[in-house]
Amino acid sequence: MVSGIQGSLCVCVAVLCLYPSQADQSCLDRQQVLIAIRQMQQFLKGQESRFTDGIRIMKARLSALQKSITKPPADQVTATSCPPLEAPKHGKMFGSKYSVDHEVHFFCQPDFQLVGSNSRLCQSNGQWTGQPTECKEISKCASNPCQNGGTCVDTGNQYRCSCPIDWMGNSCQHPVQTAADWSTLSDSSFSRKARCAKIERTQHCSCDAGFHMSGSSENSMCKDVNECEVYQLDGVPSLCVHTCINIPGSYRCSCPPAYKLLSDGRSCEDIDECATSQHNCTRGNTCINTGGAFQCVNPECPKSHGNVSYVKTSPFQCERNPCPMNSRSCHHAPKTISFHYLSLPSNLNTPVTLFRMATAAAPGRPGPDSLRFGIVGGNSRGQFVVQRSDRHTGELILVQPLKGPWVTEVDVDMSEYLDRTFQAKHVSRITLFVSANEF
């Protein structure tokens, strides 16, 4: 309080000194007056923030006191819960508690589409929010699996592609190879004469490894074995993670651009352009490595609206400016917004935890006694759910595979409560860069 009085006196002296006729020679000069004004403004801003926090804490404590006084005796309290729910057929359910304020989440197996509510909340009246959930089968041809002009035929549990005359494979992905394609008659590296010798009037012929014998015993030829065609799984070459290239007597593997072949000769690893300075991100942007590429990012805070405005406190976080005491909408707006970037392979096996949110109380302040987590944007296809992993941590879980190349965003919020009174909200915006490759 003494410092406040001193600050007030300082301002009064400064004001008097602006009028020389009313002040003596001990008056401050103009620069000193400006410095004094700025110090007083900073002091008032800090006092306002502490006063606002004190009022909020006092309201929460008064609300808790009121509830404790009006709370019925323990022998009259009955635990309110909702009827048990079951996972839909061809789907799964996250969440096993059916008491008030607990949520359950649903997702469907691949090839099935969720109809109804993907999450439901147990209300104080013992009823669940939302609608019953079903998993309806998606036509196998809905994703257009047939390539190169092939026609998809749905056969129930599977699909079949009717391919044009020049294409073959389960998805019409391989060109039909003709004799001219093999070049076995004109290219000596793919077709060569066999090594033959007569032993006791019998001719014995042999070929090098990677070739097979053809023709008659008098005119034997060694033709290359196309390992890429021989060793396939479901119509796809299985010797290489990416592309198999047939060479005379053997094969070799290749990787897509921005990947390197590992020492096993078949696996591919992404090249980190950000770590090796192979990117072209300008100053002020941050390089994010993705599968087979990179992204230059510079997230921006939301634009001011009403009494809500934000300031960027780090390259990946925005904080809300102090709110007026009587602005309910400002206090319920996110207090912090953080930005996160994840790189994923295509068709990642699910379910898998992608991201965790947690909270911790500031020193000297009462921490929240309960948290609520939810998805507030970017989940129109029901590919994500949020569940609590412990008292102070929530997890974002991918429950449906993502097929790349694709970029998508999902917003997760964490709301803090003290004695069932809302305290603050924090939002994490997670951007997923899904690669075109499955490795």
Automatic annotation (TrEMBL):
Q: Which GO terms describe its biological process?
A: nervous system development
Keyword field? Calcium, Disulfide bond, EGF-like domain, Extracellular matrix, Glycoprotein, Membrane, Repeat, Secreted, Signal, Sushi, Transmembrane, Transmembrane helix
Q: Where does this protein reside within or beyond the cell?
A: Membrane; Secreted, Extracellular space, Extracellular matrix
- What GO molecular function annotations does the UniProt record carry, in alphabetical order? calcium ion binding
Q: Which GO terms describe its cellular component?
A: cell periphery; membrane; plasma membrane bounded cell projection
Matching Gene3D superfamilies: Complement Module, domain 1, Laminin
One Pfam entry for this protein is Fibulin_C
- What is its membrane topology? Single-pass membrane protein
In this protein, which residues make up the domain named Sushi? 80-137
**What residue stretch is flagged as signal peptide?**
1-23
Similarity annotation: Belongs to the fibulin family.
- Please report the name of this protein according to its UniProt entry: Fibulin-7
